[in-house]
Amino acid sequence: MTDLLELLVSVGEAGCIYGLVALSYLLVLRPTGIINFASGEWVALGAFAGVTLIAEGKLPWIAGLPLAVLAVGLIGWLSERLTVRPLVEGGASVLSPVLALLGMLVVYREAASLIWGVDNMFVPMPFGFGRVEIGPFAGSSQSFFILSVTLTVFFLVWLLFEKTVWGKAFEAVALNRMAAALMGINLKLVAVLAFSGGAAIAGLAGLLVAPITSVHFLMGLPLAVKGFTALVIGGVGRVEGALLGGLLLALVEKLTLRYAPIPSGFAIGVPFVMLILFLMLRPDGLLRAKGGS
Amino acid sequence: MGSVLLTARGLGKRFGGLVAVDDLSFDLNEGEILGLIGPNGAGKSTTFNLLAGALAADAGSVELRGAPLLGLKPHQIAAQGVMRTFQHNSPFSGMTLIENLLVGAHTRFNSSWISVLFGASSARDRERELRDRAHELLDFVGLAEWEGAEVDNLSFGQGRLLEVARALAGEPRLIMLDEPAAGLTLSEAGRLSEIIRGISARGIAVLLIEHDMRFLLPLADRVVVLNFGAKIAEGRPDEITSDPAVVAAYLGDAGMSRRAEH
Amino acid sequence: MRAFAAWLGGTAILAALALTLDGYAADLFRKLLLVATLCVGFNFLFGIAGQLAISHIAFYGIGAYGVVVLAFQFGWPLPLAIIGSIVICGIVALLVAIPATRLEGFFLALATLAFAQLFSVVLLQGGEITGGPQGISGYAAPDYFGLSSGDGGYTLVIVAVFLMTLAILVRLDHSWFGRACRAIRDNPATAAAMGVDVFRTKVAAFTLTSTLAGVTGIAYAFTDNYLSPLVFGLEPMFLLLFMIVIGGAGRHAGAVIGAALLFLAPEVLEEWVGRHYMLGFGVLVVAAILFQPAGLMGLWDSARRRWGAR
Question: Which residues on chain B place their C-beta less than 8 Å from a C-beta of chain C?
Answer without folding.
Answer: 52, 54, 73-75, 78-79, 83-84, 86, 90, 92-95, 99, 102-104, 106-107, 109, 111, 113, 116-117, 119, 123, 127, 166-167, 170
